Amino acid sequence: xxxxxEFSGGGTLSADIRIATDNTAPAIIYSGDEDRFRFIxxxxxxxxxxxRDLTVQKPQVMRVLSGGCHIExxxxxxxxxxxxxxxxxxxxxxxxxxxxxxxxxxxxxxxxQPSEVDKKTGITHLTAEGFASYPKKMPWLENWNPLAxxxxxxxxxxxxxxxxxxxGNLGVTVTPATSGIExxxxxxxxxxxxxxxxxxxxxxxxxxNDCGDYIDKLARDIPFDYIERSAWNSDRTAITKTIELxxxxxxVDQDWLCFIINxxxxxxxxxxxxxxxxxxxxxxxxxxxxxxxxxxxxxxDPARYRRSIYQDDARINSNERAAAWSKRKLSRRQTPAxxxxxxxxxxxxxxxxxFYDVGDRIMVRGLMPYIGFVNQQHxxxxxxxxxxxGSCELTLKAEGAFNYDPIYYAAEVKGxxxxxxxxxxxxxxxxxxxxxxxx
Length: 439
What we know:
Elements lengths: L1 E5 L5 E5 L21 E6 L5 E3 L5 E8 L5 E6 L16 E9 L2 E10 L3 E2 L6 E7 L8 E2 L8 E2 H12 L9 E4 L6 E2 L2 E4 L4 E4 L11 E2 H11 L3 E8 L6 E8 L12 E2 L4 E7 L9 E8 L2 E8 L9 E5 L6 H15 L4 E7 L16 E8 L3 E15 L4 E8 L18 E3 L5 E5 L5 E4 L1
Parallel strand pairs: 13-19, 20-26, 22-24
Antiparallel strand pairs: 1-2, 3-4, 3-7, 5-6, 5-27, 6-10, 7-8, 8-10, 9-10, 11-17, 12-14, 15-16, 18-19, 21-25, 22-23, 25-28, 26-27, 27-28, 29-30, 30-31
């Protein structure tokens, strides 16, 4: 049923009330303070919703691109909204809900982590991490050696493996199934010895690879983005959790939103060359048993002295991969002027809160010290909301700081080696650029 109330100063308040038939059905859908975040507690293993409006203090919520969200808040054990709830690490979900365009949406979902209890007041400083962080420090305990595989298949494989264990099913869905980008066997040739890597992936249970680390390195090297998504089901009795993959990038271009300094942007931290540690040369080394790979890339500025850095990565197993990663490292250090972060007015019509998300590309305009007027496209890396202060901070990066080029293999082998795989592309490593045909 619906209850309407009229106020003496004018205006009405409507509350839609549903009669609960069990402990998971919603009771009150709307109330008079819809603009604030609501915190929902769900029992991890059963999916039972323990409270739909946990009373919290000092809430801070952050969504992150290609990572798990982070939630912090203070909870008083004496408050009736958490009666009967005994918070334990990995035992409850903490969902954050926000009203957007008249619809309550789940803005982020985290799993309760070890939290501190104030020794004087007994108030719990509750912490929760997003489900995208779940694979971190979890071992990959299976053998899997595909000759060729889609990039997203690897992420699906890891999540299917983790959720196959008893008490390991978080109910997380990974989408889409494929990227259309095939990972193929690699090779390297130093002029004397041809080293072939006969598998696109070589996973051994004995290596106990860190699942989270494996996903992050893959996302960095391919590259692709992944974004946490949470939403109510149709009757609002359960919350779905999805990891959305995007190649070569996730999110959308928010061309119709405006972020203008001194208009809806209240504070802005510029990233200009005065603050950048100048580097002109980057050398990246990798190694594989019996072989070392290396590449050096230079992008000199005639007005500056040469500066060089060196990095290594054991996962780089060809000269081509070393060269590709050198290019990415250098391109990320030599970018246009942009803003590292901005603090925006959450209710301003230029860009209302909830209309943009991590991974989206936005235009930020305004005057920048030493540079002048800048109108630069930025990618949103994180959104942090401090509800007590009423502020929303966006962590940004110039879109030009990202290099989405795939790794390019220049064939230098005399003769050729062919690998034919049923129903997958055929690799022809011959003279000139490798050709991909139908096998």
